[in-house]
Amino acid sequence: MARKKIALIGAGNIGGTLAHLIGLKELGDVVMFDVFPGVAGGKALDIMQSGPVDGFDSAMAGTGDYADIAGSDVVIITAGFPRMPGMSRDDLVSKNAGVIAQVAEGVKTHCPNAFVIVITNPLDAMVWVFQQKSGLPANKVVGMAGVLDSSRFRLFLAQEFNVSVEDVTAFVLGGHGDTMVPLTRYSTVAGIPVPDLVKMGWTTQEKVDAIVARTANGGGEIVKLLEKGSAFYAPAASAIAMAESYLKDKKRVLPCAAWLTGQYGVKNLYVGVPVVIGAGGVERIVEIELNATEKAAFDKSCGAVQELIDASKKLVG
Ligand code: TXD
């Protein structure tokens, strides 16, 4: 069987980390596209030179020519400008909508059958711009945010309970950012929901609330520490989990920005919900019943996403 081909659009911090993880996991060969093809080529060569040490054979190349992404099975997009200190994700909209429109053209022309994962911020709006501009089927175009947000939530819960991250599950809904909605009653330690753990005296509601707030601000906390640029190790790992589920038809249930057509009472909007990812792309949207408080928080989050999409519409038509 021929190796899979994965195109990474953007060879910055996340792009390079994605390429490294793809090599280590032997998911396929990599083509990294960037407006700085030398950077893409340098990272590709550097990572390939770790192959003999780590024992992987993935071929890696850098390019500045979209023709080189032809036939890719998966495309992961990080192209754009990162968030700088003092800049909200939303400030990025005008800068990055134009970049994503260009990328959409390249993907549509050279690999319209690919499964596409958008990472560029502001995430929910950029995935919308990509799908609109490329015309690719909505079940093949998703945004990465929920896996990262829930991973952060899982880590903070595991630290609070002093248990392995492996035994903590988390459920998050909504847009990426301050309005994301972590559902504590569906977040568990070995199947025990967080509200029960509060009752059992493992933690307090105040501490859970603080963890929820820290999760929602998870990206900002790292931006502040790094001083230049934003998180990249965990975002890359999160997108790889999505790509792997598609390539291996694992059918994992992962929270992703997906196109809603009435689920959760929302129509024609990309927003974070749990989905099943398999060889068919988004094979199913998991729709649970929300209580009044959760529904209100989700609707607020959808409103914030809609505002970003409206801003993008003005910029890219
Ligand atoms: O949860 C999430 N979705 C995110 C999103 C979590 C963390 C970071 N997130 C966003 O990902 C972040 O706000 C940025 O919008 C993207 C990429 O983050 P990264 O840290 O990788 O940014 P870099 O290092 O600046 O890399 C961006 C690369 C850089 O090499 C540019 O030269 C390139 O994008 N770039 C382009 N490539 C191709 N085509 C165009 N037009 C282009 N413009 C810039």
Would you kindly provide a written description of the structure presented here, covering whatever features stand out?
The protein has 317 residues and is of the alpha/beta class. The protein is 44% helix and 20% strand. It contains 11 helices and 14 strands. The protein has helices spanning 13-24, 37-48, 51-54, 93-110, 123-134, 146-161, 194-199, 205-216, 218-226, 233-247, 292-316; strands spanning 5-9, 29-33, 60-63, 74-77, 115-118, 141-143, 168-169, 172-173, 181-182, 188-189, 192-193, 252-261, 267-278, 281-285. Strands 3-2-1-4-5-6 form a 6-stranded parallel β-sheet, with helices on both faces. The mean pLDDT is 94. The chain binds 1,4,5,6-tetrahydronicotinamide adenine dinucleotide. Residues 9-15, 33-36, 78-80, 82-83, 96, 99, 102, 119-121, 123, 144-145, 148, 176, 219, 229-232, 235 line the site of 1,4,5,6-tetrahydronicotinamide adenine dinucleotide (TXD). Residues 148-312 form the Lactate/malate dehydrogenase C-terminal domain. The active site is at residue 176. It is an enzyme of class 1 (oxidoreductase).
